[in-house]
Design a protein that fits this description.
The complex is a heterodimer of chains A (265) and B (89).
Chain A: E1 2-8, E2 11-17, H1 25-30, E3 45-51, E4 63-66, E5 72-76, E6 79-83, E7 89-94, H2 97-114, E8 118-128, E9 131-136, H3 143-149, E10 155-157, E11 160-164, E12 172-174, E13 190-201, E14 206-209, H4 212-220, H5 230-246, E15 249-254, H6 260-264
Parallel strand pairs in A: 2-3, 3-7, 9-13, 13-15
Antiparallel strand pairs in A: 1-2, 4-5, 5-6, 6-7, 8-9, 8-10, 8-11, 11-12, 12-13, 14-15
Chain B: E1 5-7, E2 12-16, E3 19-24, E4 29-33, H1 35-45, H2 50-60, H3 66-82, E5 86-88
Antiparallel strand pairs in B: 1-5, 2-3, 3-4
The chains are: A alpha+beta (265), B alpha+beta (89).
Chain lengths: 265, 89
């Protein structure tokens, strides 16, 4: 068994790998990531990871059931996640890198809600002048394209942005290990969120400010969260409202080049 | 004929910039209502009947035929039922 510590969001996580990482999915996810500076055993989390499951050939959705002990079981053909009743430990089985990434997003979104910590947003997030710019959109809307075109700026995420919400402070976006293709860690641990942009490909480059309720509905659709405990689900929705109220939100029509940064900054 | 309904107990209403949004924590869905819809939802939570909802709307929109208002209220209730925010009994 291989054991190592990593920081995910701002949580110290002990990772126990029970099976050989033949496809190097675990290595790809965590290899270049930093261990936590400080480990508080009472506040840390534990993931026990093994290889298994099957391909999700039919693209089935995740099912959720409560365990007899009061924990939660999330299942999809290509992953299985069992979270303990206190959310402090979880058993994970994954099929491939995509399954591993999705199960970790599933796990982190549950922990973030339980800790009233924040949200996981389906987006890429780029550091510009020390601040975080979040680009949200459906698959194919251009999140990864925006991230790739933003080089050499640092990247906090290319798929799942980890956003911490603290009352009376700007949201902070943490470096996310749950990456799609751009695996290079960010040069910083986190950055304050400057603005959220909802992407749409276009022959033009244009931004327009979004009204509060419209921004909320756009954002809500991009929140990674698997409903299980209704109290946590309601909290996640409230945090989504807090997020759109705490930073400016824009629609961004963009061409496939880096000129959109001129429109933004 | 008046429809008997029951609002989802766990549903909550959020207000963002004057718009009303109902969240359903059982399904992780949100529904945006216009101003009249938000007012009707509040009245429904208080247990008002379908006819009382129509009478309220009529008081707010003078000149609109009562039958048209009743039709709108029925349509509103039907929509809320379809998305699971109320149960018709």
């Amino acid at each position: 068994m291989e054991v190592f510590w990593r920081e995910i969001g701002e949580f110290a996580v002990r990772v126990n790998c029970l099976s050989e990482d033949k496809e190097r999915s675990v290595q790809r996810m965590f290899g270049a990531r930093r261990p936590p500076d400080r480990i508080d055993p009472a506040g840390s989390f534990e993931l026990t990871i093994r290889h298994g499951c099957e391909p999700n050939e039919k693209g089935l959705d995740t099912t959720v059931t409560q365990t007899p002990e009061g924990g939660w079981l999330f299942e999809r053909p290509d992953y299985r996640l069992e979270i303990s009743p206190d959310y402090r430990s979880a058993d994970i089985t994954y099929y491939d890198y995509i399954g591993l990434r999705c199960v970790l997003i599933n796990w982190f979104s549950a922990v973030a809600a339980r800790q009233n910590w924040g949200l996981v947003v389906h987006s890429s997030c780029v550091i510009h002048n020390g601040e975080a710019y979040l680009f949200a959109g459906y698959s194919g809307a251009g999140k990864s394209t925006v991230a790739a075109l933003s080089r050499p700026r640092g990247l906090l995420s290319d798929e799942a942005s980890l956003v911490k919400l603290t009352p009376d402070q700007p949201p902070l976006v943490y470096d996310s290990p749950m990456r799609s293709s751009l695996l290079q860690p960010a040069p910083v641990r986190c950055a304050p969120l400057k603005a959220i942009y909802f992407l749409r490909k276009s022959p033009f480059i244009r931004t327009h400010k979004l009204a509060g309720s419209q921004a909320f509905l756009y954002l809500f659709d991009k929140i990674w969260y698997w409903p299980h405990d209704p109290a946590l689900t309601a909290e996640t929705i409230r945090m989504s409202k807090r997020l759109v109220e705490s930073v400016p939100t824009y629609g961004l029509e963009f061409q496939k080049n880096d000129l959109f940064w001129e429109a933004i900054s | 004929m008046s429809v008997a309904y029951r609002c989802l107990n766990t549903a909550e209403m959020l207000e963002i910039d004057g718009d009303m949004i109902i969240l359903n924590p059982e399904t992780f869905t949100v529904t945006k209502l216009n101003e009249s819809g938000g007012e009707l939802w509040q009245l429904m939570r208080e247990g008002r009947t379908e006819e009382e909802l129509a009478e309220y709307l009529a008081s707010q929109h003078g000149g609109v035929p009562m039958e048209k208002i009743r039709e709108d209220v029925r349509h509103f209730i039907q929509n809320l039922q379809e998305i699971g925010l109320i149960r018709v009994e």
